[in-house]
Amino acid sequence: MTSRLIVLAAVGLAATLSACGPKKDSSAASTADQSASAPAEEAEPIDPASKAMVATLPTPFNTGDPVNGKRIFARCRACHTVEQGGPNMTGPNLWGVFGRKAGSRPDYGYSDAMKAQGYAWDAPHLDKWLSSPSTTVPGTKMTFIGLDQPQERIDVIAYLKTATEAKPKVEAAPADAKAPSAKK
């Protein structure tokens, strides 16, 4: 019976550790191997409102691809939700994260280290945080190892910008608008 409990505990620990995605691996061979074995996907279009939101980010974050960022963020969904009114999980719900003081969401139990941070979340702070949470805020409860590829962080930040805020109204030209006719 004791050995069965050890096995179950080991399986549970492995599942917990893998929940935040694969370990960092900056080798090009690993990335190339993953890309070669992945089936080709059609590019999901970026809607005009999302493009407008990403454009408000400072350089280089305004070049991010929120569609790719959403794919990368899939690793984070084990611990975070992004929807307005979404629940806290192991980590806090991220709706409204831009401009919110770090460690200040009232319905989430942050570590003392995170509560002691004095900045509001913006693209540069998110970039630093996503590169290595435990280095950025020693004592944080977040166990995610981080994203070592700058473009992945840029894309996740673009996704978070579009997923955690209300989309602005973007005026589109009416579909039935006709060009003015030339007078003869």
Q: Can you characterise this structure?
A:
With 184 residues, the chain is mostly helical. The protein is built from 8 helices and no strands. Helix 4 packs across helix 8. Residues 1-40 have low confidence and may be disordered.
What is this entry, summarized?
The protein is mainly alpha-helical and 184 residues long.
Q: Percent of residues in beta strands?
A: under 5%
Based on secondary structure, the structural category is mainly alpha
The overall strand count is 0
What about the largest sheet?
none
- Poorly predicted spans: 1-40
Q: What pattern of helices and strands is seen along the backbone? A: HHHHHHHH
Mean pLDDT: 80
Gyration radius, rounded? 21 Å
Figure out the total of helices: 8
List the helices and strands and how they pair.
Elements: H1 2-18, H2 28-37, H3 48-55, H4 66-73, H5 112-115, H6 123-131, H7 133-136, H8 150-163
